TrEMBL record:
<dbReference type="Pfam" id="PF00334">
    <property type="entry name" value="NDK"/>
</dbReference>
<dbReference type="GO" id="GO:0003341">
    <property type="term" value="P:cilium movement"/>
</dbReference>
<feature type="domain" description="Nucleoside diphosphate kinase-like">
    <location>
        <begin position="31"/>
        <end position="171"/>
    </location>
</feature>
<dbReference type="GO" id="GO:1902176">
    <property type="term" value="P:negative regulation of oxidative stress-induced intrinsic apoptotic signaling pathway"/>
</dbReference>
<dbReference type="InterPro" id="IPR036850">
    <property type="entry name" value="NDK-like_dom_sf"/>
</dbReference>
<dbReference type="Pfam" id="PF05186">
    <property type="entry name" value="Dpy-30"/>
</dbReference>
<dbReference type="InterPro" id="IPR007858">
    <property type="entry name" value="Dpy-30_motif"/>
</dbReference>
<protein>
    <submittedName>
        <fullName>Nucleoside diphosphate kinase homolog 5-like</fullName>
    </submittedName>
</protein>
<dbReference type="InterPro" id="IPR034907">
    <property type="entry name" value="NDK-like_dom"/>
</dbReference>
<comment type="similarity">
    <text>Belongs to the NDK family.</text>
</comment>
<dbReference type="GO" id="GO:0005929">
    <property type="term" value="C:cilium"/>
</dbReference>
Amino acid sequence: KNIVQERSEAESVKLDGDEVPAPIVQNLHCYEYTLALVKPHAFRHVEDIEQTIQEKGFTIVKKKTFKFTPEQAAEFFITREERDPVKVPRLVCYMVSGPVRVMVLAKQKAIRRWLHLMGPVDPDKAKRIYPLSLRAKYGVNDIMNAIYGSRNEEEAARDIRFFFKDIIIEPSNAMESDISCEPSSNSFLAHKIYLREFVYPTLQKGLAELVRMKPAHSYEWFVNWLLENDPFSPKLKPCDLVKIPN
């Protein structure tokens, strides 16, 4: 195929399992969150990559430099990017070879737009079809392809929690706007994570205790139990309290 033919097929090119999206008009009231990872050999270009990300309208909500252990690299990439038993050892060895930069990005349709900006998995293909993509510019081969990105909403949630376990991302002002977000938006990703990690387990434990105790005034009992078992309240014993003199 020549370059013109390949460009005409741009919409069907696979990016880490997802199709390349067409450009979408941005609605600033509706955001998605996704994870971006700059791989070891491209780390020296991280400032230029971050500048490109911001120029494309993404907000870098949170970022940090991270060094994988072999166990962490295997856990993260085997279930996400590579299941080929031949390539897995190469990928793990490569990912532990140096530091990486991980970032939480926010933008309307951030997941699809980030995949689009990354370009195809194969840097050679990226250079032919998307010469301005990050993988075309910084990628070397299908292992050292410079950039990783979450492929869907569920994966974005897992990826963000892998690196930023305590992150709480404030939602956009979509609820205060008359502009509706599309159902695929994960604008409230952090809140879903918060509910799953903290609220639901606490409620389940409290309800189980309520059934076991069978108090006469169940509502008041349950309210008091929640106050006493708030996972974020300080746990003080009587001996920890200091008496303040009059």
